[in-house]
Specification:
Rossmann fold; about 325 residues; about 15% strand
Length: about 325
């Protein structure tokens, strides 16, 4: 054996991203008194769970899991959320936008309004209820231009608001998560990841996913045209059995082979046409697509009223 045989192989780009995410998560655990990990059952938060496992196992996570449920989430994702939390043996806290509606802190403009942006209110209420000083989220900078402005340790004031012009420097990967009472940090360990990185990491780690991410037949309508054209799933059953996303007058329901690239509230999350039924096929599809991840799949991002930057200023993830 020569000295060269003792040199470890170079790290891959996924190794570097994983190591950075582990470091950030440990910084949160070290600096914050009462953090929480946001877990929805979506692909990004699934990667976050694996990062937490590598950062803290065989011990328990030094924080609980939290999901802000709109009440209009896809059944497949909610079922996966509960199953994964139970497998890990970690505490899962669920707070619902519907409860905020009952308290009167969330008021919809009309019955069919998307509840997605109203999660901000319920999240801020959960932060106050449990006294969380840091929420660890799975947001990435490549998702949306407002998220590209945000620091890895994103400071929120005592009202839960984000000011993009008043952020802490993060030179030389030195992170400051210190806050005064009432203030909050949003930490984003996978900020520097891309959609492709997420799928390659899922493939490498052999992570289980909700079935909604893979190609399946679903009743949909084609709504809009050009840049605003979207495939909208219809007649989607809630956990209660009630149907939501009912087709509009004159819309033709067709069955298409689709999958979801990103998953949120039923009212604003659209699938894409795809025959990718394995993670390997999704990686190939992601490498060749010309449509951004949220481009035609998050309908609430297409209106200025619900712009991501404005929602983040109000306390959104």
């Amino acid at each position: 054996m020569s000295a060269f045989d003792l040199i470890p192989p170079p790290l891959s780009h996924l190794d570097w991203l994983e190591a950075e995410a582990i470091h950030i998560m440990r910084e949160v655990a070290g600096q914050c008194a009462n953090p929480v990990l946001l877990f929805s059952g979506g692909k990004d938060s699934i990667c976050m769970l694996r990062i937490a496992e590598k950062a803290f196992r065989p011990g328990k996570f030094p924080f609980p899991l939290l999901h802000i449920d709109t009440g209009h989430n896809y059944q497949e994702v909610v079922a996966f959320r509960d199953k994964r939390a139970a497998e890990l043996g970690e505490r899962l806290i669920v707070r619902s936008v519907e409860d905020s509606m009952k308290r009167g802190t969330v008021v919809l403009k009309h019955e069919g309004e998307s509840r997605n942006k109203h999660q901000s209110v319920t999240l801020l209420e959960a932060i106050e209820e449990f006294g969380f000083d840091c929420c660890i989220g799975g947001a990435r900078r490549d998702e949306e231009k407002a998220r590209a402005k945000e620091r890895i340790m994103s400071f929120r004031d005592e009202f839960g608001q984000w000011d993009p012009k008043n952020q802490r420097p993060e030179l030389w990967n030195l992170f400051n998560a210190r806050t005064h009472k009432g203030e909050n940090i949003r930490a984003f360990p996978i900020s520097n990841w891309t959609e492709m990185d997420v799928w390659q990491y899922i493939e490498r780690e052999k992570l289980e996913l909700p079935s909604i991410y893979f190609a399946h037949k679903r009743p949909v309508v084609i709504r809009g045209s050009g840049e605003t054209r979207a495939i909208v799933p219809v007649n989607v059953p809630l956990v209660s059995g009630e149907l939501t996303n009912l087709p509009k007058a004159g819309e033709e329901i067709v069955e298409k082979l689709v999958r979801f690239r990103t998953v949120g509230d039923i009212s604003c999350t659209a699938p894409v046409e795809s025959d990718a039924d394995t993670v390997g096929k999704i990686v190939l599809e992601t490498a060749t697509t010309t449509i951004t991840e949220r481009g035609a799949t998050r309908l609430d991002d297409q209106t200025s009223e619900a712009s991501m930057e404005q929602r983040k200023k109000e306390g959104y993830f």
